[in-house]
Design goal:
Number of helices: 0
Shape: globular
Distance between the termini: 24 Å
Radius of gyration: 15 Å
Number of strands: 8
Structural class: mainly beta
Strand order of the largest sheet: 1-8-3-6
Length: 104
């Protein structure tokens, strides 16, 4: 079976019904501060998985706060289907926590 085009392009990229494997991925840890910061500027093909390490963190866009962000308790993780790391911001109520990530 071959991949078939399914609907409109997303940010200039076609979507396919049968995803294929990615050629590369990135990984790392990001120190979370009390200000919303991005975890990088890499362009992505499929998205990013984020895991809270050390305490609760909050995920969102550039205006993320500890009251409007998506909360992740220590050890919890979430996957975000996004095309660039610079669109994902993390924040914490106090310093000393990290956001571990795996993205492609």
């Amino acid at each position: 079976m071959t991949d078939t085009y399914e609907g409109p392009a997303r940010n200039g990229r076609k979507r396919f019904s049968n995803p294929t494997s990615v050629k590369d991925f990135i990984h790392g840890q990001h120190s979370v501060t009390t200000s919303g910061t991005t975890m990088g500027s890499q362009e992505l093909s499929s998205g990013v998985r984020i895991k809270a390490n050390g305490g609760s963190i909050f995920i969102g866009g550039s205006t993320v706060t500890t009251t409007n962000g998506y909360p992740l308790a220590n050890g919890e993780e979430a996957f975000i289907d996004v095309d660039s790391m610079n669109k994902v911001y993390v924040r914490a109520a106090s310093t000393g926590f990290t956001a571990e990530f795996l993205a492609s």
